[in-house]
Design goal:
15 helices, 12 strands, alpha+beta, 5-stranded mixed sheet, binds zinc ion, 39% helix
């Protein structure tokens, strides 16, 4: 193909109507590098005008109108975008005919769509609160609650605001103070998450930190957060300022590269609690790829189900969040949603096709810290 100048480009684009999509081929379009969103949009138009449907008379009429009106491909795509929220098929055809009858450029079609289409009724918000994963030591949360209570909350938080300072960080400080301030405060409205998180430490790192060479080393905790070597010294061994010591971390688990688990400071009293702890250490979070739940928010899952004879021992236990515990294929032959299996001593999600996939959101588990990925 020779080079195309802009005037020629416009001419060829303007000439594109509904019939260029008669032979639509999704794979061919993706192969030559077209934007998948655009390809999906063409597919929608193709299905309306050329796809199998029980509305054959409607389809024929629409095709005639699209051809007769000379609507551009962009206009046909726009029509389908706007119609996508109309749920009733008959109503959708009726509105499509009206939009296809519009003459003029793209702006004219947009104006007509505003006139013709019923205004979208926004879904009423439902009561909810949700939390994000961590980023740079922070976590987000967002929610909806009855307006009266939120108004009361906002009014309480605004009391004593310094108007010369940015208000958003002050509101958060006031909110945290309302919840009870530091985690060490026994009378806090919000007690520390239980069980308290455990910090995972490879033995050589532990030695470095004790030797004063690892203050900035980041250590991973079982609730998905991190702490520095300096904070580790302060919380576990009581060296350092009291406010750091009281950060709410319960225990530290040390691992040796060959001998495995070396020590769990302040050991658990009950065997089942210890199993829970060790299972959490092999996977610092739910092993299903993309899942954000740290091990402390997980249930302990039997990899071979109890009812299939699976035992409650460490080789058979993995932390899974509540949702993925339910969604797991307990029967290895089911192969529909994937399942968690033990791969070299650590729980891994295995796809229905049999491929083991890590969940990078939680960083390495104890076995990877010991033996590498
Ligand atoms: Zn999960």
């Amino acid at each position: 193909m020779g080079s195309v100048n802009f005037a020629e480009l416009l001419e060829s684009l303007a000439g594109l109507g509904v019939d260029v999509l008669a032979g639509f081929d999704r794979d061919a379009a993706l192969r030559v590098g077209l934007n998948p969103a655009r390809v999906r949009s063409w597919q929608r138009v193709h299905e309306v005008y050329f796809g199998a449907t029980k509305w054959t008379a409607q389809q024929r009429r629409a095709l005639e109108r699209a051809r007769g009106g000379g609507l551009s491909l962009h206009q046909l795509e726009y029509i389908e975008t706007r119609l996508s929220r109309i749920e009733d098929a008959r109503e959708r055809w009726e509105l499509r005919h009206q939009l296809l009858a519009v003459r003029g450029n793209f702006k004219a079609l947009q104006a007509a769509a505003r006139r013709i289409l019923p205004p979208a009724a926004p879904k009423p918000p439902r009561k909810k609160l949700s939390f994000t994963g961590s980023r740079d030591g922070m976590r987000g949360f967002t929610g909806w609650a009855p307006e009266r209570q939120v108004a009361d909350l906002e009014s309480a938080l605004r009391r004593g605001l310094d108007l010369d300072q940015p208000e958003a960080p002050q509101l958060m400080d006031a909110f945290l103070a309302l919840l009870g301030g530091t985690r060490a405060n026994a009378s806090a409205v919000v007690p520390p998450a239980a069980p308290r998180p455990i910090v995972l430490v490879p033995l050589d790192t532990h030695v470095d930190i004790l030797g004063g060479r690892g203050d900035d080393t980041l250590l991973r905790l079982t609730d998905g957060t991190t702490m520095t070597g300096a904070e580790y010294l302060a919380t576990i061994f009581g060296e350092g300022p009291a406010q750091v010591r009281a950060a709410g971390v319960g225990e530290a688990a040390l691992f040796h590269p060959q001998r495995g688990a070396v020590n769990l400071y302040r050991t658990q009293r009950y065997a089942n609690a210890k199993q829970r702890v060790l299972a959490s250490l092999t996977a610092p979070g739910c092993p299903v790829p993309g899942c954000r739940h740290g091990a402390d928010n997980c249930q302990i899952h039997h990899i071979t189900a109890w009812r299939h004879g699976g035992e409650t021992n460490l080789a058979n236990l993995a932390p899974l969040c509540r949702y993925h515990n339910r969604a797991n294929d307990d029967d290895p032959r089911a192969r529909s949603r994937g399942r968690v299996e033990m791969v070299r001593g650590a729980p891994r999600w295995v796809s229905p096709g049999g491929r083991a996939v890590a969940n990078p959101r939680h960083g390495p588990g104890a076995m990877e810290l010991l033996f590498g990925g």
